[in-house]
Amino acid sequence: MKKKLLLSIVALATIFLAGCSKKDDLSANLVGLGGDTWTKGPVDEWISTNYTTPYNIEVKYKWDRSELGEIYKNVVPVKEELVVPIMDIIKKTWIDPYVAVKGANFMKTYTQKQFYLAGSPSYNSNGTITLGTAEAGRKIVLLDLNTFNPANKPAVKQILHTMHHEFGHILNQNIAVTPDYQRITPSDYTATWFNIFRGAYSSTAALDKILYENDFWGKGFVTPYSRSNKDDDFVETLSTLLEGGAANFDNIINNLFVYDGLYIKRNGKGVYEQNTDARSKLLRKKAIVISYMKDSWGIDLADLQTRTQAAIEAQSPTADFNSLLGPGKTYGTITVNPQKLTGLSAKFLTAYNTANTGMQNGMGLYIDNISLIFTTANRMILRVNFMDPTAALSAGFVADFNYTTTNVNGVLTLTYTNPQPTNANARAIEASIPTLLTYFNNQQFNVRWVDDIVPQSKSIFGGLVKTADATSYLFGTL
Amino acid sequence: MMKKHLLYLFLFALALGSCKKDKTEPILGNVDDRLSETLKAYQTQLAGAQFGWKGYLLTDSKVTATFLFSFTDKNRTTMSADYATTPSESSYRLKALQRPTLLFDTYSTLHLIADPTPSKFGGETGEGFYSDFEFAFLSASADTIKLEGTFNKSKLVLVRSKSVTDNSSAFEAPDNMEATLSRLRTYFKRARVGDLDCEVRLEPNGRVLGFSYIDAGVLKTVKSNYFVSGSSLILFEPLVIGTSTITSLNGVSFDAATGFINASTNSGAALQIKEAIAPLKYDVTVAARFLANPVYGTYSECYTGFTVDGVIDAYGVRTIPNFFSIDYYPKITGQNYGAVRFWLGTAYGAYGPAIIPTVSVDGKISYVQDGSYGTAPVAIRPIITNTTNNFLKQGGFYVIQTDTKVYDMVAVADARSWITFE
């Protein structure tokens, strides 16, 4: 009986095994398996050399609707001739600085693995447009690239901001930032951050600007988007530091004051009340970003920032300041308000402060700020904006003093015009501010950017530096 | 014991059953192999045309455009279009989507018309002209490839170019066709298709050909957009008229001696299009409806003035500085007259007639003048006078409704002048 059973089992097993031996033909080439193919051209070679081979990043520029998040939107592909310029700028201002600081292996490990490029924006039903999306550190979709122009610095910076933002997410997802960060502004994160835009606050443009800025900067956030949540807050601070540069960030902080309507609150001597709360929040956030990059990744943020800014400047150079200042040119006025600036020379500040003290002691007035106006040929107007502490903040006074100028290749010679034009305010305060007037009279200045004095400040501050004394200078906002 | 046998029996049955193999072989070969062969064949066909291809596009918003394409076997294409005649190079590839699909996969002249940003080429924000750059193959013969956009369902027909001359005349052909077709002076046109008398509707501007015929006492209308290749007029959609099906008119020419347009249909049958001064069947209710329901509440707009003997804007209203539209008010509120006003973008010109309409029992509108809004400046006075006189024509106008809110007014006397309000 046992034998029979064994035999049966063997027989059964044989039949089972033989019966089940089927052969499927697995040799067929599946269409599209392994991705689309086409005859490679110079663009493909460039991408291979600069992205795929060194960093294992795919740059997809040929149309593939399935790569778009919203496949039902009418979007058109990118212009082929723009692919290399765009990706070259991204490489030089995003990948290269990181590689220089941290080495190529770092970027090979952590970058997202795919770019998808498209030419037009994606139009949304609410009237807004989408310029780019990122998917979980895996893929970045850049839209609206057909308008790309390397000479358009704000547009270039916009793309870089996106890149540094998304890469910041990747870093933060690998090593989380300390929870101390989110404790700095815990109660001001909001899902409706997109309601923070110019025009949402007041029909008066000046007031709208103040209230708008107060709704993020004034609360200790570097951009409106950073109010959306702690993670985006963190990467916005990081990307703003990298893409905007040091001077940009410091300038944001130096302009945080407490407002009363349209005007900054101040004491009887015109000393502004600072928004110390927002200033300290932003500074603490910056400090955490710096220590995070150092401690978690061994990256010196200042070094990375310098390299990123140098790369942006190299890709999209700024013309020298002298060529941009004057009647009908990009800039016409330099506004110097020492309460909003750091880094002015001691020699200029002495002249300014002495004049201010002279006004206060002699006339009971104070100087709010001065501006240097270059909108007339061969002339610089020194405009002293002064206030009466007993009058309303809206009642400012203006005194104009004319200087006759000659400008030889950026060397500006100033002479106090004689006679001065009729200007009652100017005549009234002239005797009280001699130090300020003589600071300019019969002096030679270099008209130039001051990025050697305030690093990364091109296009933010323009200045005048005495040719005979490089330690005597002033600069201001443009 | 019996139970055990039953068990074995069951197991053997199962074992034998498991041996059943599916012997069916795909009779046409492997699906993927066939698909790649098809894609390859299409690419070879596209790249194999010595003089390239003439492309005829009809977008979903019924905008037509003519292209010249040449394709290489290296995924490159050079194209020009009637709206951008300088040839430029970009890329293409074939891909197996739901159907074999031709993708123009980097930006090119073809994408302009689809661009969602109106500042690029026009069209609607976010939509452009509802065109495509991903086209699925519908059919392909040696010389003609029919494609359909996968996104907006626009149509693209590729016709193999025969010669350099064929290419160089591609963009002029529609203009020449328009000139030929406009030789017929009357609004109404007749042709005999099979055994049916048809009213022919020709819109050279929008490239539309239509036929209306009476079927069991009811007026039936069929129409389609067309494209022009040489002296042929080829329809995007076949038109079925009775028992005949028309897909193209070939050898379209004007015979000055008879005043007819001669052509032959795709089936080889001769087709003559003749002038006519009355509609095949007239809807007498339209005139009253047009007067009672102006398109914009109190008025309707006309952008091109009167067409006379086939010449659009024969009196030149579009040459009036800042001219935007002729606005026709059937009745000015509070007055017993209506008016023809000339809108100049920000205000009406201080001229133009006040006119009073009468609708006859057979549905025709005629006008009498009841003053004017002033004397037109000398430079444009003939334009205003001619336009005014045309409104006052003896016999009045047929009113033909061509779309929900589009009305043509056609002179009853000779049907040689008409005006469109929309």
Automatic annotation (TrEMBL), chain A:
Keywords: Signal. The keyword Signal applies. Pfam families: Peptidase_Mx1. This is Substrate import-associated zinc metallohydrolase lipoprotein. The lineage of its organism: Bacteria, Pseudomonadati, Bacteroidota, Sphingobacteriia, Sphingobacteriales. Residues 1-23 form the signal peptide. It comes from the Bacteria. NCBIfam families: LP_HExxH_w_tonB. It comes from Pedobacter ginsenosidimutans.
